[in-house]
Design brief:
Layout (H helix, E strand, L loop, with lengths): L6 E3 L4 E6 L17 E2 L3 E2 L4 E6 L5 H20 L5 E4 L8 E5 L8 E7 L4 E9 L20 H17 L1 E2 L37 H8 L17 H13 L5 H12 L5 H17 L1 H4 L2 H12 L11 H11 L10 H16 L3 H6 L6 H11 L6 H13 L4 H12 L2 H6 L1 H14 L12 H12 L4 H4 L1 H6 L2 H4 L5
Parallel strand pairs: 4-9, 5-6, 5-7, 7-9
Antiparallel strand pairs: 1-2, 2-8, 3-10, 8-9
Helix pairs in contact: 1-2, 1-9, 4-5, 4-6, 5-6, 8-9, 8-12, 8-14, 10-14, 12-13, 12-14, 16-17
The structure holds zinc ion (ZN).
């Protein structure tokens, strides 16, 4: 019942086929966590892999695939692999091709990697076959009409990209591959439609990170002096972590020369580094992309259940990358591009299952606006609220009109002001530490609350609160780059 990959030898390189193990079995029993095994065949350490999403993928598939690749880029930015996945929109210069195509029975996704004799992957193809069925049945493994469809392609992508990183499936305990604790590794198996039992996690797990960091091809970063102390390295890292892009030459020179103008004055350099760092959160480019995404989520869904924030880093990164696509503030027609990206984002969001489940078509214009307003803690004045209800009703309460209302609430000046400090603190975790505030080593949001209180006690002044400084000198941040 299991799919086993085959291999074939090419001249000077080998293509190794790896697929998702699909296992038809009963309910999972209790079992010890099994981390993935490895073949140590992965992308070159520190490389940027350009990926191309084939036009035959649906919009929903693309959304989920981008999530999976953004999550791997995030995970790699704190593990030793440091492999970045960057989208190629031209279709002319890519190493990693993702597309739909026919696969064998029981195989909803399949990674084919080409690598050199030293095991370094130089190209890969990831094929999806959403019509695949469980072996010996007519039951679809991925079913658009069943719960879980809005995350199953993320899980398949995390799994298959894991294969291209050098990970392999975990050992099968007691002969039953479904005897695997839920979510222990992205290399787990699918045991039911759309993985409704959540065997496969939506984020690269500690288990996966540990195995990658143990591979010979991904040794630890232990250079001294730490490269993050070097000015241009420091500035470039901020472009990658906050703006999701390589620096433009003008920007890189501007920020680097600001720090270098201090010469050997250590106190001056420290102040300039902190201010340079904060400038990325404060920049128009970030405020109009990352902070915009944060506010849209706040307006659409409110805070996450049991958490004081509206969005996870796994949700945040792929959305922000799409809103920022092709936008470099001050360059070319960036304003039109940004406007088009923002509209495309909200228009897409309102058609997704999560949004539609929360706001069925039967929701009246008044109930819709009131729900969004409640999500923001009531930032709308009565007049603003009434105007939105009137406009939405007049436009027929269509998805397009709802998207427009969502955007107007997200861009309300009171909301932007009210959420500024919480978002600033959250972005310390997202930008510098590349994790959620309650991810390990933090067990909860105590650290988040500590910094938010400190920021508030200092009137929102990050310098007096010493917040940015604390993050950029933290051991956790510095260990991303060296000793
Ligand atoms: Zn697999």
């Amino acid at each position: 019942m299991r799919f086993e990959g085959g291999c074939r030898v090419w001249a000077r390189r080998v293509a190794w086929l790896v697929g998702v193990l699909v296992v038809a079995c009963g309910a999972a029993g209790a079992a010890r966590a099994q981390c993935p095994s490895s073949d140590n065949i992965g992308w070159a350490r520190g490389s940027t892999v350009r990926f191309f999403l084939d036009p035959n993928l649906s919009a929903e598939q693309k959304r989920q695939i981008r999530w999976g690749l953004a999550e791997w880029t995030r995970a790699n930015s704190v593990n030793n692999a440091r492999v970045r996945f960057e989208e190629d929109f031209t279709g002319q210069n890519f190493q990693f091709h993702l597309h739909n195509g026919p696969l064998g029975a029981g195989t909803p996704a399949f990674a084919n990697k080409s690598f050199r004799s030293d095991g370094t992957v130089v190209a890969a193809t990831l094929t999806y076959d959403l019509n695949a069925t469980f072996p010996g049945t007519n039951t679809r493994i991925v079913d658009p009409n069943q719960p879980g469809f809005d995350t199953i392609i993320i899980k398949l992508t995390l799994h298959e990209v894991g294969h291209t990183m050098g990970l392999d499936h975990p050992p099968v305990p007691s002969g039953n591959a479904c005897n695997q604790p839920d979510g222990a590794t992205v290399m787990n198996y699918i045991c039911n439609v759309n993985d409704r039992s959540d065997n496969m996690p939506l984020a690269v797990a500690e288990c996966d990170r540990g195995v990658l960091n143990s591979l010979p091809r991904y040794p630890p970063f232990n250079q001294t002096p730490n490269p993050i102390d070097e000015t241009r390295f420091f500035v470039r890292q901020h472009y990658l972590d906050f703006l999701n892009r390589e620096p433009d030459a003008g920007g890189l020179n501007f920020w680097a020369s600001g720090i270098e103008s201090c010469g050997a004055n250590a106190r001056c350099r420290e102040v300039k580094r902190v201010d340079t760092s904060a400038a990325f959160f404060l920049s128009i480019e970030f405020q109009e992309t990352g902070y915009f995404v944060y506010r849209v989520y706040q307006a659409a869904f409110g805070d996450l259940a049991g958490r004081p924030v509206p969005i996870t880093i796994q949700e945040f990164l792929p959305e922000t990358q799409q809103v920022g696509r092709g936008v470099v503030v001050g360059v070319g027609n960036w304003q039109q591009q940004l406007e088009a990206n923002k509209n495309a984002f909200v228009q897409d969001l309102v058609t997704r299952r999560r949004f539609a489940a929360r706001y069925p078509a039967t929701t009246t214009a008044a109930a819709f606006v009131d729900a969004l307003n409640a999500n923001t803690g009531g930032v709308l004045s009565q007049a603003e609220r009434d105007a939105l209800v009137r406009d939405l009703a007049a436009a027929g309460n269509t998805p397009q009109a709802r998207a427009s209302v969502l955007r107007r609430v997200a861009e309300d000046a009171t909301l932007a002001q009210r959420e500024f400090s919480p978002a600033f603190v959250l972005m310390q975790y997202f930008g510098y530490l590349r994790r959620n505030p309650d991810d390990p080593p933090d067990p909860n949001f105590d650290g988040f609350h500590f910094w938010l209180n400190k920021l508030n006690q200092n009137g929102g002044d990050y310098r007096r609160a010493e917040m940015v400084k604390a993050f950029i000198v933290s051991i956790e941040y510095r260990r991303r780059f060296g000793q």
